[in-house]
Amino acid sequence: xxxxxxxxxxxxxxxxxxPAISIANELxxxxxxxxxLFVGARDKMEMEKVPQAGxxxxxxxxxxxxxxxxxxxxxxxxxxxxxxxxxxxxLNQFKPDVAIGTGGFASxxxxxxxxxxxxxxxxxxxxxxxxxxNKLLSKKAQIIxxxxxxxxxxxxxxxxxxxxxxxxxxxxxxxxxxxxxKDHFELKHNKYTLLVLGGSLGARxxxxxxxxxxxxxxxxxxxxxxQCGKLYYDQxxxxxKTEDVQVHAFLNNMALAYAAADIIISRAGAxxxxxxxxxxxxxxxxxxxxxxxxxxxKNARAIxxxxxxxxxxxxDLDVDFENEFSTLVNSKEKQEHLASxxxxxxxxxxxxxxxxxxxxxxxx
Length: 364
Hints:
Blueprint: E1 5-9, H1 14-30, E2 35-41, H2 46-52, E3 57-60, H3 76-94, E4 98-101, H4 107-116, E5 121-125, H5 132-137, E6 143-146, E7 160-162, H6 178-184, E8 192-197, H7 204-212, H8 214-219, E9 222-227, H9 233-236, E10 245-248, H10 254-260, E11 263-266, H11 270-279, E12 283-285, H12 295-304, E13 310-311, H13 317-329, H14 332-343, H15 350-362
Parallel strand pairs: 1-2, 1-4, 2-3, 4-5, 5-6, 6-7, 8-9, 8-11, 9-10, 11-12, 12-13
Helix pairs in contact: 1-15, 3-4, 6-10
């Protein structure tokens, strides 16, 4: 019996790459002899992250359409044609049994060619408001795995399976590890710990907020694990190891960072939201307003409406932040309410459930 061949595509950001890697890892654990190939955008982070995870990747000359009128858009038709032709060549050479797309412009040409060749295809949509790539692909893909309710507004209802988003497996077991985690980060046990997350690259507005509020945090008896992102580390590293402040470009052990945290401030990308539901700590979402269709605000609101988190828009931070934060840090009842609310929304078996759907396509 020939080895199963699985092709995956998704990228541009970690929110599309890491779910694809998680799905591949689950399928590899089930089918050790399976062969895997990733396809991404050749100048994006997947070209580094996928090989680090132990998989081969092919790059396409593709990028997204800019929302503003820009000269970059003039090259898009040429990039699209080039990527469609390259995708066809990759598919002809690799001969996959199934194609999996996790969104982002990189997955568009590959999945489009896969469905046109009759290759069984599954797409995974992380957000509560789908991107244009998955909306277009949904017409021909057989299965659409989603993380939120209400997506039949955008996708054919009969194809939708609610699975949740794949998350890293190590965060499933952080219960009861607070003392170990605080010791790992050399934190004080008599202070609240605030974990600040702005994504792997960082978030400018969150970073400026934290810098402005360092004295305020002192008055609230709060110590910080501040992940400022690699783009901003040189700017903020001078605050590292100052009184009750740790600054990190990147957190290699997210499980222990989550375990150490009493309160979390985060962007509202889909993967982050899914992880935070599993972590079950009080969260203040500060969504990025600079993403397509404002989907981070929609992701955060889906949690807030269920009583699982607080949300403060960037434009309201100067007026609302200190009051919202001090109310939360001084109310054990409010912390417990938010923690239990967000935990109820966790879908812990997402990766396994998506792999089940892939196996159905493969008729295993």
